[in-house]
Each structure stands twice: as C-alpha cells, then as structure tokens.
Amino acid sequence: MSDLVEIREDADVSAAARLVREIGDRSRLSGPTTESLITVIAALATNQLRHASRGRILVRTDARDGVPGVEIEAVDAGPGIADPTASFAEESRRSGARAGGLASVRRLSAEVDLDVRAGEGTRIVARMYDRPVPRRRTVTILGRPLPGGRMSGDASAFWRGDAFVRVMLCDGLGHGAEARQASELAIRTANAIPDAAPEAVLAACDAALRPTRGAAVTMVHVDERGHLTGASVGNIEAGVCQGGVVSRLPAQPGVVGSGRARERLRPSRLPMPRGSIFVLATDGSTYPLAECRVADTAGVPPWVLAQRILERCARDTDDAMVVVVV
Ligand SMILES: [Mn+2]
Question: Torsion-angle region of residue 211: left (phi > 0), alpha (psi -120 to 50) or beta?
C-alpha cells in the first residue's frame, strides 16, 4: 500500500500527518510508532516548505521479519540541504533556531537514506518499524557541480532489495550537461537490468554509452552478510574502511562507452563486515579515502563523513559526488 502527498502549503503538513495516522491505524501499528511517524512526516514536510518551497512525500507500508513498518520518502527539487551535518544534529538547548529540523527524523527512524544534490534537490527516505528489527544497509549520496557550474556531470543511484543494496556512481567525462548525459544513461542502463552482476552492468553501459562522451563508472552489490562485489572502470575512488584501514576496490583503466572497456571486466570482491563503511567518490575529490584513515569513522553518521570529504577534498575545477554505504 502506498500514498502520495503533495506539499505546497502549511495545510499540507497536517494532511500528511493525517495520512500516516490512518496508515498507522490500518496497519495496526502501536500508538507510539504512529506518533513517531507523525513527527517524522511533519518534520520532512516542514523542511520541504522551508527550504524547497514545495515537495512530495510518498508513504509505503513495509514489514521486516514479520514486524510491520512504514517507509516515508520525501523528494523535492530545491537547492539541496546545504549543511546535512547541522540539519540532522540534535538541537542543543541553546539553539532553538533549529527546532523543527531533521534531528527527529534521525532519532525516530530505524534507518535513513539521504540523497542531496546541490542545485537539484533532496531525497530523504526514512524507515520505521513497530519493534526493533535487524538493521539494513543505508546509503548517503552528496554531490555538487563545480563552483559556478549549473549542472553536475556526476550521477549516482541506489537500488534496495530484501537482503542487499546496489549502488552506482558515474562521472561523465569532463563536466556539465554533456557529461551528465553520459552518467544519466549509465544509471538508466543499470535500472533496466536489476538482476545483472556489476561487471555485466558495466558491459551493458560500455555498449549503451557509445554515442556519448563516456564515463567513469563503479557499480557495487553489497549484501547483508558482509560481502561486497563490484566492478569499476576509470578513476572513481572506492574502498571499504574499518578502524582507519582502507581496502580499495580495484578499478580498470579506461572509459565506459569506448566499446573496449567490456573486454577486460572482472568482478572484485571485498569483505564488508558490520561496522565497516564503503566510500565512493568521483575524481572531483582528491584523496577522499584519506579522510577515513585519519580518523576512526565508527559511529560517525554517513552524511557527516560524506560532507567532510566534499568540504575537505573536493576540487574547484570539477563536479564532485560522494557516496557512503554503512
Ligand atoms: Mn570528474
């Protein structure tokens, strides 16, 4: 069961709250869970009005291990959350200014996926369950065009299954709109073959991207048991980090779309145990994985790490995008 609410004015915040109350009642969720859903959807809707002036929110019922729950997905085409670290931080007693912020979304949700593209919009997906459930992987994507640029040539997407998440990151050659054509086509190609292995997705992209400039592309499949399988062509940095140690995902040189990348494609496997994080970054960032070496990343929210990489490593001469899977 799923429902959509358009958020255009203050009254729509109450409409969204009524919708999740109904869904909570129909799904026989406990009172406290329904109250949490109402708080979260109100925070998401208010955030959209305040920062994007409008947006839409999708609500879907879900269940995990027999425990009923709800997934709330908020999408807007605003400027993108400028400072995710601050927006999701718990309010201190002094900074009442942040009341109605997104801290409650983080606090009340079992999991949050976050996708923020500067100048393009924000997507927040929050999942809540009636009782504690085994935690699943979450994905954070933060990207921005090069300073002064209007459109990023980088693109990323993730696909979630019952026991896995698939993530793609693409850097169209050069930057701007034509680069974006190539990176978006890679995403659409992956989207059309949801069951294909990462190296098979890259092979399909190598053929599909022939009419474009081409792109650097990394595709990974991460399961819930601690296995990561991936394939990578071109200079996207990717690695699993744990306790300051980084295991890199090997990449083959070349360009997806050249028609020659598919000849040598091999899958790579890395262990990704609980507590480790997987970081991906386009070459708009210099030494992004060094950020995982200098400090222990355990317990650091993924958006804090992604934002830190963008702020400390991103170059002024290229689009930059960072993906963190925990
Ligand atoms: Mn680049």
Answer: alpha
Output the CA 30–ligand 1 centroid distance in Å: 48
CA of residue 23 to ligand 1 center, whole Å: 44
Q: Which domain holds residue 316?
A: 139-325
Euclidean distance between CA atoms 25 and 174, whole angstroms: 51
Dump pLDDT digits (tens) for 158-209.
999 989 999 999 999 998 899 999 999 999 999 999 999 999 999 999 999 9
242 shares a domain with 195? yes
Please name which of 279, 265, 164, 271 lies closest in space to residue 228, comparing C-alpha atoms.
Answer: 271
Residue-level pLDDT at 244: 85
Task: List the CATH number of the domain containing 199.
Answer: 3.60.40.10
- How many structural domains is the chain composed of? 2
Is the pLDDT confidence value at 97 over 70? no
Quote the ligand 1 centre to 323 CA distance (angstroms).
Answer: 14
Q: Is it the case that residue 93 has pLDDT exceeding 70?
A: no
Residues 6+ apart with CB under 8 A from 171: 153, 154, 179, 183, 215, 216, 217, 234, 235, 236, 282, 283, 284, 319, 321
The H or E element containing residue 310 is helix 302-313
Co-location of 73 and 177 in the same domain: no
- Residue 283 and residue 148 share a domain: yes
Of 74, 96, 129, at which residue does a domain stop? Answer: 129
Ligand 1 midpoint to CA 283 (Å): 5
CATH code for position 54:
3.30.565.10
**311 occurs within a structural domain:** yes
| Final residue before a domain boundary, out of 96, 129, 162 | 129
Identify whether 134 is part of a domain. Answer: no
- Ligand 1 center–CA 126 separation, angstroms: 30
Q: What is the pLDDT of residue 281?
A: 97
Question: What is the per-residue pLDDT across 38-48, written as a single tens digit (0 to 9) for each?
Answer: 999 999 999 99
- Ligand 1 being an ion, which residues bring their Cβ within 5 A of it? 171, 282-284, 318
